[in-house]
Amino acid sequence: xxxxxxxxxxxxxxxxxxxxxxxxxxxxxxxxxxxxxxxxxxxxxxxxxxxxxxxxxxxxxxxxxxxxxxxxxxxxxxxxxxxxxxxxxxxxxxxxxxxxxxxxxxxxxxxxxxxxxxxxxxxxxxxxxxxxxxxxxxxxxxxxxxxxxxxxxxxxxxxxxxxxxxxxxxxxxxxxxxxxxxxxxxxxxxxxxxxxxxxxxxxxxxxxxxxxxxxxxxxxxxxxxxxxxxxxxxxxxxxxxxxxxxxxxxxxxxxxxxxxxxxxxxxxxxxxxxxxxxxxxxxxxxxxxxxxxxxxxxxxxxxxxxxxxxxxxxxxxxxxxxxxxxxxxxxxxxxxxxxxxxxxxxxxxxxxxxxxxxxxxxxxxxxxxxxxxxxxxxxxxxxxxxxxxxxxxxxxxxxxxxxxxxxxxxxxxxxxxxxxxxxxxxxxxxxxxxxxxxxxxxxxxxxxxxxxxxxxxxxxxxxxxxxxxxxxxxxxxxxxxxxxxxxxxxxxxxxxxxxxxxxxxxxxxxxxxxxxxxxxxxxxxxxxxxxxxxxxxxxxxxxxxxxxxxxxxxxxxxxxxxxxxxxxxxxxxxxxxxxxxxxxxxxxxxxxxxxxxxxxxxxxxxxxxxxxxxxxxxxxxxxxxxxxxxxxxxxxxxxxxxxxxxxxxxxxxxxxxxxxxxxxxxxxxxxxxxxxxxxxxxxxxxxxxxxxxxxxxxxxxxxxxxxxxxxxxx
Length: 714
Known about the structure:
The chain is an alpha+beta fold. Among the domains are: 18-136, Potassium Channel Kv1.1, Chain A (2-Layer Sandwich); 297-669, 6 Propeller (Neuraminidase).
């Protein structure tokens, strides 16, 4: 104590947790000074009316209005609240005292029921975040969660579940046992929704109803008539075996719509003919195709020609008189190509097929850290542009193209090198904006890729013969960050790009958009000046599609007027031509998981929307249709790239049908989150002390394989 220092004012305070919350909790344990007892199925919870009224408008009205409970100590809530675990009600009462609540997958449903009953909007928001933001909506609980969220007014969660159901009802949910637990009213609502059953066959709907009734026959047999009447709306009655005739006898619901609109009517004699399998197809073992070549690593670096040569097991087709089918080729892969699948979509029959490739051998020969960033087809060959997918341009001193011979199922890796005597700085465009993948086209027997050389935009011509590329500088172009390209008359390449000056997107100047035309015969860019479309630098990342229709370059944006290039007046004209917008189309242009993949065929445009896990959808749009035509969604998540092409019908007949959902990609790329105690800004808890890093997410190095040493050997 000092006799010579005097403080005129001092503020003393205690911790609120110690002086208020803990004493109140001790009173609840002993019942001392507690003025209300809440009873639920034999359990008794003591509390203070003041605390309950402070948090819950339900209790505030009960204890302040002229109600019987105002003067009653015991309140029975057994008939008002129905829970799977009555102890969860105690967790909510503890939350009213401490402001801390642990939400898990086991108690989330009861917490939502209680919060909606007690009008606890903040707890309902926690439930919404747990479902939507923390990824706790999946195929295992989407059916139950959809109706639970609707009953308790969680619109965002309900809509998310509805999209999953619409995408995966036909190939997963109808075969899952979870749907058998739904009450009759919920099942009836699903079967009455055309967006849910639009891709499902009538036989499968009939089989589903029978399974649902048989799971509890005595209690559910009374619903057989109304459910049977409901599914008859979508097809004709058929007593055949549902598990054996679903492919042979039934068409997808609404599956003929696009064919009737687009395809010309054939004579009855021709339409009933089914092409026979090609007798020249050679099967090898259990698979139908040969494996990729085996090349010695020591020779691959010295001789680039070895990248496309090797010892193949020959597989031959007889394409004579074989009808060509228009198809979509799609690739599902991840960074590092630890997961790779090639899918084929038969547009006319709306069927997905799996194209077999020698997965292990292909992945072993591909350079590390590479992924498929774009696709293009030509003459029954699928060219896959491989580069790293990062939010910054990466090195393209070598351009790696994985080539798949679609007729012989042979895979080759082409590694194109520069013809320059020195090694200048080569950089790709941005590869992480999925709406605008790196531009690559096939024209005049060569591949063309948009990139950068020494900080300026160039067109890289990849020669398939000598495995070298030549660079052609785009006049007046600075560093290209994103680009689109189309081919006209197999000679002219139209390039639409955005370019900048600066080291990165965050620190750059002179952002602008440019347009140019390249003549592949004269190897020069156009001399006439064409101003780019009036689309800003930032809007370039939106889901625009540049294509050629009737020898005219057109830029489409679903739901908006198209931009048409008038080459006579050298200007862009806003046209009345436009394509409809698919229901699930999301034009945000962000770097989030939501993105659209677009490709054009001879008559229409296909849009694949990757909005969220388990919700990949596909729609066909064209100018002659007022609405988008939905197609059968791909039976796998997160289509990485898509392009259109043709395949002989005999080849399609040999492919394995891919009609059941495959969760391999979702399982391989699922990122598990560690237990987190700090879920919101108001929480007073902290992270667990045993965490090794500041990041709550734990990645599997075997999946992502961020090995920063490139390996180009085969």
